[in-house]
Amino acid sequence: MDTVCRAGLTLQKFVLRLPGEPPLPLLLALPTGPVRPGKVVIWLADGGKATVLDSSMTQVQAYLNQGTAVLLADLLGLGETADPTAAIDPKYYNRKYHNNMLNKYLGCKLPIQRLSDIDILHVFVRCVDPLAGAPVELRSSGRAVVPALHAAALWVDIMRLTVDQIPPTYQQLLAQPTTKNVYSEVLPGVLRHYDLPALQRALGDKLMVGKTPERAMMRR
To answer: Do the bridges between strand 68-73 and strand 24-29 make them parallel or antiparallel, or are there none, so unpaired?
Structure first.
């Protein structure tokens, strides 16, 4: 099994693959000792798992000390699955237009594909020892927040969602359609059914808001 070492910790490397789906890279850090993890945190950073390795290993270690396993993953278009800067044509006014085109041919919008990625991670945690049976929490920042909101609202066994900040509503995006990088975040026709505040109300006390360390580093 491939591993990566950072700040004295060893993380296991996985690439999850399903037929017809893009590969999903992740890292898994497990508490030491024979005791099974008491909880699993799925950490979805706007800059990908590399930003957590660079800025938040102290917090990863704190989770491990509490007996919590930490799973770091790159949703589609984030982290190592993001387009390199040199490949982004500014005329499209969106950093994710390659991924948008890919998802057009896959038959779903980018936020839905990212939700599918979280579903794959969710199944992985439920089925793989020693994670199976442990309570699950999500932690997300930036462009990973909207799919995480949907996931936490859909799957009742997700005990908590921590986000760096509340994203703009779909109504706000509709009112400012020329905002940069917005096209990849919208769902056609969604306002006929709900807006993001409805998900926030549905989550209630399960939703926690606070700046995550890796997001703070990216804003410097």
So the answer is: antiparallel
Residues listed for the chain:
220
> Bridge-partner residues for 73, per DSSP?
26
pLDDT 10s digits, 201-217: 999 999 999 865 444 43
- Predicted confidence (pLDDT) at residue 76 exceeds the cutoff of 80: yes
Q: Classify strands 136-140 and 207-209 as parallel, antiparallel or unpaired.
A: unpaired
Angstrom distance (rounded) from CA 126 to CA 153: 18
Whether residue 214 contacts residue 141, with contact meaning beta carbons closer than 8 Å, is answered with: yes
| Type of residue at 210 | G
Cα 10–Cα 12–Cα 18 angle in degrees, nearest 5:
165
Q: Is 145 exposed, middle or buried, given 0-12, 13-18 or 19+ CB atoms closer than 10 A? A: buried
pTM of the model: 0.88
